[in-house]
Structure formats: C-alpha cells, structure tokens
Specification:
The chain is built from ten helices and eleven strands. By secondary structure, the chain is α/β, with parallel strands linked by helices.
Length: about 325
C-alpha cells in the first residue's frame, strides 16, 4: 500500500526526541498521581488485582501510537508515481543471425549458436531505448521479430533460435536483404544491421553485394561479424534420417573478404570473433559506436497519504478515551 513512500517534511521526526523527556517527567510525577485516600471498606480486597489494572497500564501506549501516527502525518508522506516520456528517436537495429548447421560447431562452448544467442541477449539488454528486430537465415531467410521496443519478447525469440528450422546453407545476401527491407523505412535517427555468420555464401537468389548496395542506398550501416576459430573445429558433417547431426572435424571457412566489403560499402565495420570473450568485446564496441542522445522527460505524480495516518491517530485516541471512561474506568 505504501510502496515508493517519501516524506515532504521529514524534519518533524525530530519531535521523537521529546519522547525520552516525556518518559522522564512521567516517572518523576508517577508517585504524585496515585490516589492517597484510603478506602476502609476495601481492606478485605488488599493484595487482590483485577485484569482491569493490567490493561489500564496499556492505555498510555494507545496515546503514544496516536502521537506517532500524527507525527508521520505531519511529515507529509507521499507515494511517488513515475512516468517516462521519450521525446527523441533512438537507433533502429536489426540483428541478422546465421542458423546454418555449421553454427553448431563446438569451437565455442557449448557451440557457436548458444554463445551468439547469449551475447546477443546481453547486447539487447543494454539498448534500453532502441527499437531492435531479428532476422535469421541459412539456405533461406525470414524475419523472426520485427522492430520492437519490447525487448522481453525479442530476447525470448533469440533464446528460442535453433539450427534446422530452415533449409540448410548460408544465404548471406538473403539474410542481409531481409534485415534491410525491414529497417529501411523506419523513422529512427540511425539504422544499423548487425550480420553474424560463420560461413561462405552458397545459397539464396540475392547476392550479398547487391544487398549491401541496397543497404547503402537506404542509409543502413552494416556491421559484419565472422564467428569461428582458425583452422578446424568439431562441426556437423552429415545428418541422420532422424534429423540429428553427425559430428566430425571440418575446416573453418569464413568469407572475410566479402564481409569486409559489405561493411566498408555501408560505413560499418568487420569483426572476427574467435572466442566467446572476443564476441562480447565486439558487441561492446558496436554498443559504444552506436550511441545517440536520448531526450527523456520524467513526469512525477504524487499521491498524498497523510490522511491515512490522521485517521489512524484519531482511532487510537478515541479507543483510549472509550476504554478509560468505560471498561477500564478507575474508581478513586
């Protein structure tokens, strides 16, 4: 009920320092407040105590609670409701991720695809105000998630990626063209495609450089990332009838020259990731390169809560008076 509670006048809590003084004064005057008239007719009840006597000692506690509630009310508690309104457009980013079977190569732990998914999710989490989309490709390509600011949905899509959902192959041109087609008409200040692959273009009807020309025409900057260690790696070399992959040693082949051309044509940059750590650093560098000023206006609304404590103080005071003059009335 009182989450995000703040106090407009917290200095009223300094009045709590009066409590020790009041307690000291009451202790000094306590003996004078006792009745001094002896009632001869009650001598037979000497030494006997009623439950009322015990409860009468609790009456000052109700008055103390009323005092504390009024003190909180004077401090003017407020519940803060915060809203953010983003005025400026952020950067629009489209991820194009290779899902060819070679992404299951185990030169990354546990494999290339799992590492790429994890690092991509971390990158998305950093871009709080950007619209980000996802395209995937192997022998063909399609849009997995359009541009969105709902990063929870996007990360769910990324985490659900797996090899084998598309015809096998590496259609780099198709993957890039799909991403560019989705981002070219966006209203963002800057449009960026991050294309990640571990192979050589060998499928698709759109040539990679043709897709790069289209990206350049629409002002889309393309960062390319080649994933895979040098030499050979344990990779899928064939597929069984049940759909599972047969693993074996295979040469790591990445068309780095093509990826460099694509990035240079569009004003981007090419990176080579040979370890999980190097891939993280690549995304960190892209994150630094693609920063923009975001004008965020914070609107705060307050809900006054002091009246709750005023009613609480009145409740304790009325309860104390009712008990003192009815059930717990003291007879002199």
């Amino acid at each position: 009920m009182f989450s995000n509670l703040s106090f407009q006048h917290p200095w009223f809590f300094l009045l709590l320092l009066l409590l020790p003084l009041v307690a000291w004064l009451r202790s000094r005057r306590g003996g004078q407040q006792e009745a001094t008239v002896t009632m001869p007719t009650l001598e037979v009840a000497a030494g006997l105590k009623s439950w009322k006597v015990d409860f009468q000692k609790l009456l000052p506690l109700l008055r103390l609670l009323a005092f504390l509630a009024l003190l909180v009310a004077l401090a003017r508690p407020q519940r803060t409701l915060k809203e953010e309104s983003i005025k400026a457009e952020g950067i629009d980013i489209f991820l194009a991720i290779d899902l060819s079977s070679s992404m299951l190569a185990q030169d990354f732990n546990p494999d290339r695809l799992e590492v790429c998914k994890r690092v991509a999710v971390e990158f998305v989490d950093k871009r709080q105000y950007d619209r980000i989309g996802l395209a995937v490709f192997s022998g063909e390509a399609f849009t997995q998630c359009p541009l969105t600011t709902d990063h929870r949905v996007l990360t769910d899509f990324i985490e659900g990626l797996r090899c084998g959902i598309l015809e096998d192959g590496t259609a780099i041109g198709m993957g890039l063209a799909t991403a560019v087609n989705r981002i070219k008409d966006s209203p963002g200040k800057s449009k960026v495609v991050i294309l990640l692959t571990d192979g050589v273009n060998n499928a698709g009807y759109v040539k990679p450089l043709t897709a790069a020309e289209i990206a350049k025409e629409f002002g889309v900057k393309v960062y390319t990332i080649g994933v895979g260690q040098e030499g050979t790696a344990v990779s899928p070399i064939s597929r069984r009838s049940d759909g599972s992959f047969v693993m074996g040693m295979a040469k790591v082949e990445i068309d780095e020259e093509l990826l460099k051309q694509i990035s240079e044509m569009t004003g981007g940059k090419y990176f080579r990731a040979t370890t999980a750590r190097s891939l993280e650093k690549i995304y960190d560098e892209i994150d630094r390169l693609e920063k923009t000023e975001i004008d965020v206006t914070s609107i705060k609304r307050y809900s006054e809560e002091f009246y709750r404590f005023v009613w609480l103080a009145l409740f304790f005071l009325v309860l104390e008076m009712l008990l003192r003059f009815t059930v717990l009335r003291a007879i002199p």
